[in-house]
């Protein structure tokens, strides 16, 4: 549920996932968790970023902090004593990201404070993989081994380590709970292979103007792109303000009437220009729908053309698009 469900609208995604049987939700911060709590009174809602800010707010709304350092463990344990009951928590151990979580040394220090652990209802011990999208990377196995060693100190506590790509590393990585994000939203968790996921997101816009352009004419800001042969340019009302990254200038691709056409010229704040010269005139005019992200592969392909990953493309989708939610996969 991080980043408003990867830009797709947590208010719609959370209930849909609940209906599909998901009971465990993870958000980045407390605000995100409180929102999910509002939509799903019975879900288990966890905060990845940890126990930050108002500790009592976690207790009141039954939000489970992912404890990322010894200070957070201590504070949550103290809070549990104040409330005279065990409080639920996820313990995050760092096996290679050097970002959040207790490294092995701090796990040792934690084990020396049994009174802290006794105050907690440990729901999971978790870690996070750094290179799960590279199945051949030795770090995956190293992290799995380090994690298994740490889990031995917490017998009976379920474990969780796989993100979307981690799931595809095989059953050894599944532990008790996986935490898929990107794959749920249709992104390819196996970047070296065809996308095993169904398409989820489709981004479309309607042409608002078509212009006949003669050879030698330039298109857009900077007059960077010069037309070689007479063609037609279609303008669509999407721009970098909508998350259609400026890096897609001269690199993006769109689909009009089943034909792939290139983005030409710079992406503006609110507009993108396409060379539709390859299409018969009657196929593309004002009002014709154009796809910018479609099918199984284009989210990742378009992101790659922009020099980024589909995660960034999704989370950048602006607030200006009318959104429609349906049950069917989009093609
Ligand atoms: C974002 C995140 C995930 C989900 O990752 P995907 O690659 O989107 O599946 C899982 N675990 C943690 C700790 C994360 O921060």
Architecture blueprint of SSEs:
Layout: H1 2-6, H2 10-19, E1 24-27, H3 30-39, E2 44-47, H4 55-60, E3 63-67, H5 70-83, E4 87-92, H6 104-111, H7 114-118, E5 120-126, H8 138-151, E6 159-160, H9 164-167, E7 203-206, E8 209-213, E9 218-219, E10 225-226, E11 231-236, E12 253-256, E13 259-262, E14 272-275, E15 289-293, H10 298-305, H11 310-316
Helix pairs in contact: 10-11
The site of pyridoxal-5'-phosphate (PLP) has 11 residues, from helix 9.
What top-tier CATH class of the largest domain fits best? Alpha Beta
Assembly annotation: single chain
CATH homologous group name of the largest domain: Alanine racemase
CATH topology description of the largest domain: TIM Barrel
Strand order of the largest sheet: 1-2-3-4-5-6
Largest sheet: 6 strands, parallel
Helical proportion?
Answer: 25-40%
Q: Can you tell me the overall shape?
A: elongated
What does this structure look like?
By secondary structure, the protein is α/β, with parallel strands linked by helices. 27% of the residues lie in helices and 19% in strands. It has eleven helices and 15 strands. It has helices spanning 2-6, 10-19, 30-39, 55-60, 70-83, 104-111, 114-118, 138-151, 164-167, 298-305, 310-316; strands at 24-27, 44-47, 63-67, 87-92, 120-126, 159-160, 203-206, 209-213, 218-219, 225-226, 231-236, 253-256, 259-262, 272-275, 289-293. The strands form four sheets. A six-stranded parallel beta sheet has the order 1-2-3-4-5-6. A four-stranded antiparallel beta sheet has the order 7-15-12-13. Helix 10 crosses helix 11 (310-316). It is elongated and about 80 Å long. It starts with a helix and ends in a 15-residue tail after the last helix. The model has no long low-confidence stretch (mean pLDDT 97). It binds pyridoxal-5'-phosphate. Residues 2, 48, 128, 163-165, 179-183 line the site of pyridoxal-5'-phosphate (PLP).
